[in-house]
Task: structure prediction
Amino acid sequence: MILVTGATGLVGRPLVTALAADGRAVRAVTRAPAAAALPDGIEIVHGDPSRPSTLADALKGVTALFLHPRAAGEAAAELVALARDRGVRRVVALSALNIDEDPDDQPSRHRGDRNKEAEQAVTASGLEWASLRSGTFAASSLHAWGAQIRAGDVVHGPYPEFSEAPIHEQDLADVAARALITDRPLGRLELTGPHALTHARMIEVIGGVLGRPLTYRGVPPEAAAEALLRQGVAAPFVAALLARYRRELGRPAVVTDTVQRVLGRPAHDYATWVADHADAFAAPPTTAGFTPPSR
Result:
């Protein structure tokens, strides 16, 4: 039995689906079972990974655990210890490429991700382990630009030449599945998409897939910050995000071949991710504006 925390999220949902499709017994943890909408054959249990005691019964018979850093929060070490006591033999943590940077400089930390704590919990557990140090999720571009794309053909944002190597969440899920079931230890894995793309180029790719003449129009970072704050985005997140853009501007994004090495197939490119989510970009307009990725 494999227990998955964060089971209804961007990685957890395709992960439980992939494991079930491979014939694995999967137990999916969620705070809202009635709204989980997971495929048939997956056991859904109510629990809160940030309160490990709520998972005591769910850990019975579990041999492998997927640890989500936002779901577990500050309780990652406590949850892993409980899992070890219940007989779990392997734990795989989702983490991030920027894990070793100053915590204040990690945008996603200001949204609850505790990547460092999750990785430290698994490496110190005495169990078989892997840590998936992910780059930016491709889905971040939908959150960042989806509303603007649904509203028109011009996308506004800071630093058009900032470079990312967005990773398809299915690739992350497939690597996580492999790490949970493989017989060999995988350790720390740095995972990115196959290509470094500027924000301006990503918008061109989206336009090409959608058949629309999309363009990215740069705005001053101060204006972008003001827009984010007006949207209710927390000030620490805004500061960390724009500082990251300034700090890494002019440097191509890190690109790894880890997905191919682990899975034996190439990582999905960004155009494939866009095609897989084309309906979301074509949905009825919502409030347009710049909303940033979170890593």
Summary: Residues 13 and 111 are 20 Å apart (CA to CA). The domain at 2-135+169-191 is CATH 3.40.50.720 (Rossmann fold).
